[in-house]
Amino acid sequence: PMIAYERMAFDHADNKYRFPEAIHGEEGPTPEFPLRLLTLIRRDAIHSQISSKKQMRLPTVWIAPDSPALKDVDLGEDVYLVSPLARLRVEVKALPGLHGEAVIYRRGDWIKHGGGVNRLVDAVLTDVGDGASFYSQCVRVENQFYF
Questions:
Q1: How many domains does the chain have?
Q2: Which tens digit of pLDDT belongs to each residue from 97-134?
Q3: What is the CATH number of the domain that holds 86?
Q4: In angstroms, rounded to a whole number, what is the distance separating the alpha carbons of residues 51 and 73?
Q5: What residue numbers bound the domain in which 129 lies?
Q6: Is 10 within a domain?
Q7: Phi/psi at 65 (nearest 5 deg)?
Q8: Which residues contact 72 (CB under 8 A, 6 or more apart)?
Q9: At 46, is the pLDDT very low, low, confident or very high (cuts 50, 70, 90)?
């Protein structure tokens, strides 16, 4: 069918759903990049439709206050969110109850205002088709900035 699941019919001779034949795992955090980056939507904006006035400060990330990833980070100094591709200067806020291997970044801010989380995320070839997904990235937080 042109529409997935139209009239609950699937694109098989018997119109029934088929479970995936294999579940493909993903790489998890490493000692070098111990945090899973969660880029979540904002409550007060649709995608990148955020006024410039609301973007005149550093992007904020939220991390569990007891996260091991903060062990060597001085929050009184400049802090960077770092992936193998890039780094962004960020403000860190504590979020009690968040998993210690997670960091939240509210997406939609603009590169010209210092945001742009997409530059941290690597394209990964999907297991079905020849497309790229941008939904899995591990990062770290640190004080140093390397040129």
A1: 1
A2: 999 999 999 887 878 878 888 899 998 777 766 777 77
A3: 2.40.40.20
A4: 31
A5: 30-142
A6: no
A7: -60, -25
A8: 142
A9: low
